[in-house]
Amino acid sequence: MSAAYWRRAMNTGLAAAARPLPRAAAAPVRVPAPDPYASSDAPRWLKFLWRQLSARHVFVLALVLIYPFVATPFFTFQIAGQALALGLIALSITFLGGYGGMVSLAQMTVAGIAGYALAILGSSGASGQAASLGWPWWVAIPFALAISTTAATLIGWLSVRTEGIYTIMITLAIGVAFYYLALQNYSVFNGFQGFQRVYPPTVFDVHWRDPVPFYFLALGCSLAGYLLVKWLVRAPFGIVMQGVRDNPRRMHALGYNVTAHRVAGYAVSGLLAGVGGILLIWYNGLITPNSVNTGWLINILVIAVLGGMRHPIGAFLGAIVFVLLQTFAIDVIDRERFNLVIGVVFLAIVLFSPDGLLGLWSKLRTRFGPAAARRP
After folding, report:
1. Is 232 inside any structural domain?
2. Residue ranges in the chain modelled with pLDDT below 50
3. 252 domain-assigned
4. Alpha-carbon radius of gyration of the chain
5. Residues 6+ apart with CB under 8 A from 166
6. In terms of residue numbers, what domain contains 274?
């Protein structure tokens, strides 16, 4: 092979290398729309609220506002009111488990502590050795919430040093211990009788246990809890909590106090569960040890898992499904076998969608939605 041949081959290669390569089709760059509230002097929480609003949120908000005026008092109070109260307690588990990686079975215990504190400090019709102190509602409610938040903080302080099944067992042991304490203590908790006739106060000449007023009271508290969680998970505290959930060792190496953030997460969840516990005691009109027994400790976890632990709205969706099954399952099965229906539904949801009902809805949209119809 001659030298001239090699020179021609080398020159051809150099010329090819010098030619510019063909450009690939550039992907369209999405420019985010300008934020109209960035330069506004409005408070940060108001800017956050406006950013979160969409057509879907407006539709759901209009639906829940109109609902009590078109539904019967039974569906307004027994179904919707109870579901909102239980959903707020389940929201505390969703916040801990979905964003903090900590599953607690003591959230119903925290709610029960708030209910007992309100019954003891406020007014009730308890009969027996225990008697309520008769404090005004505007003093008893903040104290009850402070007690429940403190109790949740102490539970978190005890349990955050463990992970996985050990955390679940510690919180379950605390819940069972409180149940037997309330059952066997008559001087403070009035034993198995508990406290009866614990009703919300009459404020502005409104009887807040009537179906429509109670519904709007529960709706306002639930909406506030939902927005609080949505804001916290986007705040620096919530972002650190999610980092601790994913890789606690790395977050510790970056200088964050992992234990302190976990305990603070328990405190926030205690506030949410305390508000839900007060709504639940007002809904039932009483609180007894059966309100915090082992069955209810599990039921709250089932509600949170049914809706979806990764979505705050899932807690309320799971509560609606649970209350509907609890109310109407006796039409097709004995009341004693109600837990069998709940167990079957729970297993079906977990098997087909580990992310709960919202995860199942996302799968159906992906498979049968408009995007799936356009696929070749």
Report:
1. yes
2. 1-7, 9-18, 20-32, 372-376
3. yes
4. 27
5. none
6. 76-293
